[in-house]
Specification:
The complex is a heterodimer of chains A (about 260) and B (about 300). Chain A has ten helices and ten strands. With about 260 residues, chain A is α/β, with parallel strands linked by helices. In chain A, the strands form two sheets. Chain A has a six-stranded mixed beta sheet. Chain A has a four-stranded antiparallel beta sheet with strand order 2-1-4-5, with no helix packed on it. In chain A, helix 7 links the parallel strand 7 and strand 8. Chain A is globular and about 55 Å long. The model of chain A has no long low-confidence stretch (mean pLDDT about 90). Chain B is built from twelve helices and no strands. Chain B is globular and about 70 Å long. Chain B starts with a helix and ends in a 5-residue tail after the last helix. The chains are: A alpha/beta (about 260), B mainly alpha (about 300). At the A-B interface, helix 2, helix 3 and helix 6 of A face helix 7 and helix 8 of B. The structure holds adenosine-5'-diphosphate (ADP) and magnesium ion. Magnesium ion binds next to helix 1 of chain A.
Chain lengths: ~260, ~300
């Protein structure tokens, strides 16, 4: 990680274990997330990438029987966001998420983007207008939708819906954004535009992205973690992972010999 | 050997084909019979109503403020019955829609599994109570209770009938709304939670609009049920046609009138006999209007996930 040694730390998982009931899905995970960089999680399906990602915004709290053990520290506060005393809503207010399948709300384009602001009690129209425009610009969607902000979000194409979901998350100025295979439901052209967008977003926000697509990880990320069976097998800067992995399992996966 | 096998296989196919055709015909007959019955009902209602309108003008029917077909001084204004129907239904819906919706939101979004397992069957039990029991409950329990607060309230009144009818309709509204809300995919809810929304905000701002078409269907069913309900209003609201919009007064609804005259013996083909059908047709049209409105709403807000 020599070339990036100057990166600031945004978050850090320490000895993280996670259980779906009795089933342990994450095993002693240690990983750092650098500020305003893109960290990618790769690995075969079912290895625990989504499970790990969803620890960062305490999504698992929504379902009974789930249990965290260990820490995820968020900086600069230096608090463990998995601490049960921390309200998950507070965590989600600061860490946004974009899902695998675009999931706009049954509302207008405008109201989708304004949602997080309204939830935070902002109702001043001028302020909302301003933030909505800024978020849509940030998600490279403004020009396509500025004339139909009041039409339903479902009328957008899949790629546009996904950019709308990115705008929705951006509108509240999160410190960190989680992406769970954000392009797996999209065609190649929409995928390329989302990728380009994510690459730009790191100027303003820390990004943790799960991807099923190794080329994507290689193209956009600064750091890559290879996961396998609930463990992080290897974590390094992306270049090292893809050109000179130190673990046999990583190499097998990268070169497609996994199986 | 091969020849034999081939031909027998063909025979087998043909048998299957015949069986498919028989099943198809049976299914068609089943579907057709329900359509045929509906058409027959409409035809009879319309035919008898046409006979009625040979004697009474449509204008009188719609504008006369009295409905006294069986009196010597007969008047045939449907408005008193329509008003009675709308007022009792309105009171019922004012109870059933808010409560039914709140119960649906609670059961779908908040209630722990165990609570839902108990509350749902209990609510469905409400539906099993014969409506005549509700009627006497309104007349003998709710009305005296209301009279305690409003001493001038008459013994027969639309308020009491409407309130009890509302309770009866709650399960219709709540169970269909709840099904619609539970059908909203989890990933839509997760999108809301991920934005930092509370459970309450998610339920109100995301799940409810996402389930809108199903909830609208529940409301339409509740409205149809309220307009068509007979026994409760016949027992507790009085049978006197009375053009008023005040729920504290007694009045007859369309359904109550139909029961009332059907119980008497009117000569076949008489004008009085035909009023049953014209009242029935009016009821059908009212239900139809609400159903069309509901259909339109559902198309307008059809959810796409
Ligand atoms: N809600 C759940 N309950 C129980 N096991 C689950 C649940 N979600 C995922 N798992 C299991 O946890 C493991 C990791 O899943 P996941 O994080 O979704 O993998 P990935 O995103 O890498 O494909 C898998 O074995 C999966 O079957
Ligand atoms: Mg996954």
């Amino acid at each position: 990680m020599s070339e990036n040694a100057m990166d600031l730390l945004k978050s850090e998982a320490k000895n993280l274990n996670f259980y779906y009931g009795e089933y342990q899905a994450l095993k002693n995970i240690n990983l750092t997330v650098a500020e305003k960089r893109i960290t990618a999680l790769i690995g075969p399906s079912g290895c625990g990438k989504s499970t790990f990602l969803r620890c960062f915004n305490r999504m698992h709290d929504l379902y009974p029987g789930n249990r965290y053990d260990g820490q995820i520290t968020l900086y600069p506060d230096d608090v463990n966001i998995l601490n049960p005393k921390i309200d998950p809503i507070e965590v989600r207010m600061r860490i946004g998420m974009v899902f695998q399948k675009p999931n706009p709300f049954p509302k207008t384009i405008y109201e989708n983007v304004a949602y997080g602001l309204r939830v935070r009690g902002i109702s001043n129209r001028r302020k909302l207008d301003e933030k909505v425009e800024k978020a849509l610009c940030g998600a490279a969607l403004w020009n396509e939708v500025k004339d139909r902000l009041n039409s339903l979000a479902f009328n957008l194409s899949g790629g546009q819906q996904q950019r709308l979901c990115i705008a929705r998350a951006l509108a509240t100025d999160p410190e960190m954004m989680l992406f769970d295979e954000p392009t797996s439901a999209l065609d190649p052209i929409a995928t390329a535009s989302i990728e380009e967008l994510i690459a730009q977003l790191k100027e303003q926000v820390t990004i943790l992205i799960v991807t099923h697509n190794m080329q994507q990880a290689a193209r956009v990320s600064d750091y890559t973690a290879f996961m396998h069976m609930g463990e992080v097998v290897e974590f390094a800067d992306t270049n090292t992972i893809f050109t000179n992995p130190s673990q046999k399992r990583t190499e097998d996966y990268i070169t497609g010999r996994y199986g | 050997m091969t020849e034999h096998l081939k031909s027998s296989r063909f025979a087998h196919r043909r048998m299957r084909h015949v069986r498919e055709r028989i099943i198809e015909s049976l299914l068609f007959l089943a579907a057709f019979s329900s359509v045929a019955i509906t058409v027959a009902i409409v035809v009879i209602l319309v035919r008898e109503s046409l006979g009625f309108f040979e004697h009474v003008s449509i204008i009188d029917f719609l504008t006369d403020t009295q409905w006294t077909p069986l009196f010597d001084d007969a008047h045939y204004g449907i408005m008193p019955l329509v008003a009675g129907t709308l007022v009792t239904a309105g009171v019922a819906l004012a109870v059933a829609i808010p409560l039914g919706t709140i119960i649906a939101i609670y059961l779908s979004e908040f209630a722990p599994h165990r609570v839902r397992e108990v509350v749902k069957p209990v609510l469905e039990l409400l539906d099993g109570i014969p409506t005549v029991v509700y009627g006497y409950f309104a007349l003998l329990f709710v009305t005296p209770l209301l009279q305690y607060f409003f001493p001038e309230l008459p013994g027969f009144n639309m308020l009491s009938a409407g309130l009890v009818m509302g309770v009866m309709i709650i399960p219709y509204v709540s169970s269909i709304s709840e099904d619609a809300m539970r059908a909203v995919p989890m990933h839509i809810r997760e999108g809301s939670y991920a934005m930092g929304a509370t459970r309450f905000q998610t339920a109100l701002r995301v799940v409810t609009p996402a389930a809108f078409s199903g909830i609208a269907a529940a409301y339409i069913l509740g409205i149809s049920r309220a307009i068509g309900e007979t026994m409760i209003v016949a027992v507790a609201a009085g049978m006197q046609p009375n053009l008023t919009w005040n729920p504290m007064e007694p009045a007859a609804t369309i359904t109550a009138y139909i029961v009332q005259v059907s119980l008497g013996d009117l000569p076949h083909g008489s004008l009085g006999y035909q009023t049953i059908f014209v009242a029935g047709l009016t009821l059908l049209l009212m239900t139809l209007v609400f159903n069309i409105a509901g259909h339109w709403l559902r198309r307008r807000f059809r959810e796409v996930y």
